[in-house]
């Protein structure tokens, strides 16, 4: 009798494990990284540049938009890709707007900016709870293609050579909740 119980218990345990770990009704999540790239060549003391982007610009959103239940903000970062040696300035201001270009979702300021400090070393953009709530409210209807305006401003720019170049990006991470 013991010979029958042992295999039966092992079989039931395996079936239970498989059924509990492979639930087809579990939520599916996907991380959507939206990058806004800036490439500036200038000789002036101030930089002001903006880029527009929409959810539909990204394949992961397009592939899943008809099955989305929710889009939720995760984090943001600034990254220097390449820059003229010694490039620095005052008051780096990174602003993300709704598609109208006037409703601010977040505004982040770095008082003293040295481009090389953020090469292969992302600057994490810490947002307030209110800014996160504003972004999530803007993304409330996940099947509606939302657009954004990302803006970079920098004043008192200096570099070891002129004209200078700054190639960088603002990365904006969201989580897509997809219906099973």
Structure description:
20% of the residues lie in helices and 51% in strands. By secondary structure, the chain is of the alpha+beta class. Strand 4 and strand 5 form a beta hairpin.
The amount of helix comes to: 10-25%
Average pLDDT rating: 90
Largest sheet: 4 strands, antiparallel
Distance between the termini: 43 Å
Radius of gyration: 23 Å
Percentage of residues in strands: over 45%
Please state the structural category: alpha+beta
In what order do the strands lie side by side in the largest sheet? Answer: 1-8-3-6
Shape: elongated
Number of β-strand runs: 8
Which stretches are poorly predicted, pLDDT < 50 over at least 5 residues?
Answer: none
Question: Can you count the helices?
Answer: 3
- Helix-strand sequence: HEEHEEEEHEE
Notable features of this structure?
single chain, 180 residues, alpha+beta, 4-stranded antiparallel sheet, 3 helices
